[in-house]
Amino acid sequence: MICFASVFFTYGQNNLLDTSTWTIGNGSISTEFSRYGPTSKNIRELDYGPHSSTSQVIIWKGLADNVSTLDGGFLTSYKAIDPSKKYRLTIWLRKINSNDGISYFGFNALDINGDGASLALDDLVNNNPYFISRNWSFPTFNEWYLFVAYVYPSTYASSFNEAKVYRTDGTEISNFTPNSYKFASTATEMR
Question: Which of 16, 47, 109, 160 has CB atoms 3.0–4.6 Å from 187's, for a disulfide?
C-alpha cells in the first residue's frame, strides 16, 4: 500500500496541524509527526496529490509488506481541545496496485491526568478509537479518497453519524461509513 497521509483537525475553521513542515525524507518530523513503524516504511516524497494532477506536493507514503501492521504513517503530537465542541478530522488516502495493508485512521483524547477520554457514541469508554481500522478495499487503485470523521462534544446524545468517504469529485462512497466518537467531559487534549 502506498498512501498519502495528510490529516487536518478542524476546530471552527482552523487546522490544528501544520503539514507545511513536511520535508522530503524518511521517518519522523520532530514530535509533531512521529513515524508509525520503521523509518524504512515512512517515506515523504513529491507526488501528485488529491487536488491537482499537474502540480506535485509532499506526500507521506506507507509501505505495506504483509508481515507487520506497522506499515507506515504517523502519530501527531497532542493538541489542546474543548470537549464541548465538535471536531472534524480528515485524511486523504490512496492505494496503488494492491489492497495490501490495513488503513488506520483514529485519534486519542486524554484528560488532564493523561487518562483516556474518548467515548463511543453510546457513551462507552474507548481507549483505542479508530474511525477506520481494517483492510478496506478501495474501489479504484491510484485514486484519492477523502475520509471524513467526527469527534462530537461530550454532551452529544445521538447515534447519528455524519462520517463519510468521498472521491475527489465530491461523490460519496456509499458502501462504507467510518465510525465516529465523542469526548468525555474531562477531555483536554487529543492527537
Answer: 109
Q: CA 118 to CA 108: how far, in whole Å?
A: 7
Specify the residue for cell string 507487520: 68
Q: Are 93 and 1 spatial neighbours (Cβ–Cβ below 8 Å)?
A: no
| CA distances (Å), origin 70, targets 12, 17, 26, 54 | 33, 22, 15, 32
Q: What confidence tens digit (pLDDT) does each residue in 73-111 have?
A: 899 999 999 999 999 999 999 988 877 777 889 999 999
One-letter amino acid for residue 73 of the chain = G
Neighbours of 150 (CB within 10 A): 21
Note the maximum CA span of the chain: 47
- Find residue 131's DSSP bridge partners: none
- Pull the grid cell for residue 64: 505495506
Q: How far is CA 111 from each of CA 82, 147, 154, 171, 181, rounded to the nearest angstrom? A: 11, 26, 12, 37, 16
| C-alpha angle 135-60-30 in degrees, rounded to nearest 5 | 120
Place of cell 507545511: 20
Bridge pairing between strands 6-11 and 14-15: antiparallel
User: Structure pTM?
Assistant: 0.87
